[in-house]
Design goal:
There is one protein chain. By secondary structure, the protein is of the alpha+beta class. The chain is 32% helix and 25% strand. The mean pLDDT is 89. It binds zinc ion (ZN). Zinc ion binds next to loops.
């Protein structure tokens, strides 16, 4: 697949960056000006649908993506219900958009809570699945291509999305445009300054340069939101863990330590391992609740 050489920082426009890691053959650099981490080679926009193919979600030989997203469906739904408590602390219904909504499970949870839902998802495979299985009709496009009207939404979710965007600042500015005044943006992303990331270094499980383009810290995520005129009401790592099966946990473990691959293959199919549900929080994810402020306010 084609990659594009990244010349300057998406957050501050500086062209001064220092190479920190090389992961899967892709250089990861840190901006000397603002501290944002990003890949030196970016995905090409034309390749996005190929990257988020069936194999990405359901397992294949790509070397990245999920083993089987749908096998963990109940656990994802449980995780989204838990995260939704944070949404409803600041927004009480109305029009909700999820950007990069994947299989739409977060929209399914929102719909059950009486929100009117919209979604944007670049993967045609995921869009077809949502239509058939959840009767959700989402935009199979980028956020900007969806051309939503201004001042339209009460809440926008960017959960596990912004780090995979090719233009995070541009997309957060677009969210500002389409939110109603006082509307809320909920962003969940990774924290490269977390203890786990600092200890794991280049083995950190959030380093997935085939799909992830940016790696945020509290400081850089906050700067980006403020640059787009958002007022941050809350930032937290609590409650940002996920429910998963022991089989899923073992497969993640095997990604870091190949010695566990055989054990994962044997036990992963075990009924008890597949059906179990444990809650894991490594505190390497951040969640921001941010409000659209008026630019002149
Ligand atoms: Zn920068």
């Amino acid at each position: 697949m084609k990659t594009i050489l990244q010349a300057k920082c998406n957050l501050c426009d500086s062209a001064q960056a220092q190479l920190v890691y090389i992961k899967d053959g892709i250089g990861i650099a840190k901006c000397k000006e603002c501290g944002l981490f990003f890949n030196l080679q970016m995905k090409s926009p034309q390749d996005l649908d190929k990257i988020y193919s069936r194999d990405y979600f359901l397992g294949g030989d790509l070397g990245y993506g999920y083993d089987n997203y749908l096998a963990e469906k109940e656990n994802y739904l449980r995780s989204f219900r838990k995260k939704f408590r944070l949404v409803e602390k600041y927004a009480q219904g109305g029009k909700l958009l999820s950007v990069g909504c994947g299989f739409g499970l977060c929209l399914d949870v929102a719909r059950a809570k009486k929100w009117q839902t919209w979604g944007v998802e670049i993967s045609k495979f995921a869009c077809d699945w949502m239509k058939e299985n959840l009767q959700l009709d989402v935009h199979n496009s980028t956020l900007k291509e969806a051309r939503f009207p201004g001042n339209h939404f009460d809440a926008v979710l960017m959960w596990g999305y912004i780090q995979e965007s090719l233009d995070p600042l541009g997309e957060i500015k677009e969210v500002y445009r389409i939110l109603k005044p006082g509307g809320m943006l909920f962003i969940q992303t990774q924290n490269i300054d977390s203890l786990y990331a600092r200890l794991a270094k280049d083995k950190w499980t959030q380093f997935k340069p085939q799909t992830t383009s940016y790696y945020f810290s509290k400081k850089t995520a906050r700067l980006m939101l403020e640059k787009a005129h958002f007022q941050i009401l809350e930032e937290t790592s609590a409650g940002m863990g996920q429910f998963c099966s022991l089989g899923f946990l073992l497969s993640r473990f095997a990604h870091i330590f190949p010695a566990f691959k055989k054990m994962s293959a044997t036990l992963g199919g075990n009924r008890l391992f597949r059906r179990s549900s444990v809650y894991i929080n490594l505190f390497d994810l951040l969640h921001f609740c941010a409000k659209k402020e008026e630019k002149n306010g």
